[in-house]
C-alpha cells in the first residue's frame, strides 16, 4: 500500500497540472464517481491526508481517492497513449493540456467538501506525518492507548488512527533505526524509543515526499533501506542475516511482511 510520502509526491506532481485549471472532461468507471459533475469547474486544491488524496473543485465538491494495494495515479499530455489498459481506469480528469488518470484504486468518490470532516475514513485519522503540523505528542498518546498496548510496535505504526502516513517500509525501518524489535508489544517500548521513531518517521516522510525513491539510509550507503526487503542479507550495521515474518495488524488486515536484524534488534530486550 502506498505510504504517506508516496501520496505527497503524487500530489506534488498533479498540483501544477490541475490546480487553477478548468476541467474540460471527466469520467469515472461505470457505476462509480459521477465525475461529469466537475466538468467546467476549476481545481482549487490537490492535497493529502495520510494515505488519502483529495482534489478539490470550486463548486464545493472534492474527489477522494485511496489507492489501496494496487492503485496509482498517472499523468499524460492530451493525446498521449496510456501505459495501462483503459479497463483499469477508475477516474479521469482532463484539462486543456493534461490528463490525470487513476487506475485500480478501490476507493474513488466525489463528495461535498464540507462533508470531509465527518467522512468515516478521514475523521478518524491520526496526526499526519507528511505535514508540518504533525503532532508527535498526540501520536505518542494514541500509540499508548489501551487498544494498542499488546500490539507489536511495527503493526501499531501502521494504525492510521494513531499516526497517519506510515506504511510497511517505515514499519520495519523505524524500529531498526531505534534498535527495537518490531514484534515487541507497544507497552514494552519506552516513551523515548516511541517518540524517537515518530520524530524520525516524520522527518523521513517529509524528505521522501520530495521525489525519487524512498530512502532511509545516509548518502553513500550501499542500500536505500536498512532491513526492508532484505531477508537473509547481512545487516548494514552488524552483518547478521536479516530475518522477516508475515503478520496481520488485525484479523481483517492483509498479511504483510516485517523485517528486522536479530543482532541489532533482539527480541524482548531491545526496548529496555
List the SSEs and their pairings:
Blueprint (H helix, E strand, L loop, with lengths): L3 H15 L6 E4 L14 E7 L2 E6 L3 E6 L5 E6 L11 E6 L3 E6 L3 E6 L14 E2 L7 H8 L9 H4 L6 E2 L3 H10 L13 H18 L34 E5 L8 E5 L12
Parallel strand pairs: 9-10
Antiparallel strand pairs: 1-6, 2-3, 3-4, 4-8, 5-7, 6-7, 11-12
* CATH architectural grouping of the largest domain: Orthogonal Bundle
Helical stretch count?
A: 5
Shape: elongated
Proportion in helices: 10-25%
Q: Based on DSSP secondary structure assignment, what is the total number of beta strands? A: 12
Radius of gyration: 20 Å
Q: What's the N-to-C terminus distance?
A: 31 Å
By secondary-structure content and strand pairing, the structural class works out as alpha+beta
Largest sheet: 4 strands, antiparallel
Strand content: 15-25%
Calculate the mean pLDDT score and round it: 92
Low-confidence stretches: none
Largest sheet strand order:
1-6-7-5
Question: What is the domain tally?
Answer: 2
Amino acid at each position: 500500500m502506498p505510504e504517506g510520502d508516496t501520496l505527497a509526491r503524487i500530489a506534488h506532481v498533479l498540483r501544477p497540472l490541475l490546480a487553477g485549471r478548468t476541467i474540460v472532461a471527466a469520467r469515472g468507471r461505470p457505476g462509480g464517481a459521477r465525475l461529469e459533475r466537475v466538468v467546467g469547474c476549476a481545481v482549487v486544491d490537490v492535497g493529502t491526508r495520510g494515505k488519502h488524496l483529495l482534489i478539490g473543485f470550486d463548486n464545493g465538491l472534492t474527489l477522494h481517492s485511496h489507492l489501496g494495494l494496487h492503485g496509482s495515479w498517472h499523468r499524460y499530455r492530451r493525446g498521449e497513449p496510456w501505459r495501462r489498459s483503459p479497463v483499469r481506469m477508475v477516474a479521469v480528469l482532463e484539462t486543456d493540456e493534461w490528463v490525470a488518470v487513476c487506475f485500480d484504486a478501490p476507493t474513488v468518490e466525489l463528495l461535498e467538501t464540507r462533508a470531509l470532516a465527518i467522512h468515516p475514513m478521514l475523521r478518524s485519522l491520526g496526526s499526519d506525518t507528511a505535514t508540518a503540523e504533525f503532532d508527535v505528542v498526540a501520536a505518542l498518546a494514541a500509540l499508548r492507548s489501551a487498544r494498542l498496548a499488546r500490539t507489536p510496535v511495527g503493526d501499531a505504526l501502521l494504525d492510521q488512527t494513531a499516526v497517519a502516513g506510515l506504511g510497511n517500509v517505515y514499519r520495519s525501518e523505524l524500529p531498526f533505526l531505534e534498535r527495537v524489535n518490531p514484534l515487541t508489544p507497544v507497552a514494552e517500548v519506552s516513551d523515548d524509543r516511541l517518540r524517537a521513531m515518530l520524530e524520525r518517521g516524520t522527518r523521513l516522510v517529509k524528505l521522501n515526499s520530495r521525489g525519487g525513491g524512498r530512502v532511509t539510509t545516509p548518502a553513500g550507503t550501499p542500500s536505500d533501506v536498512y532491513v526492508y526487503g532484505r531477508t537473509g542479507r547481512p545487516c548494514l550495521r552488524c552483518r547478521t542475516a536479516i530475518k522477516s515474518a508475515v503478520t496481520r495488524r488485525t484479523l481483517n488486515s492483509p498479511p504483510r511482511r516485517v523485517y528486522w536484524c536479530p543482532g541489532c534488534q533482539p527480541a524482548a530486550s531491545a526496548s529496555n
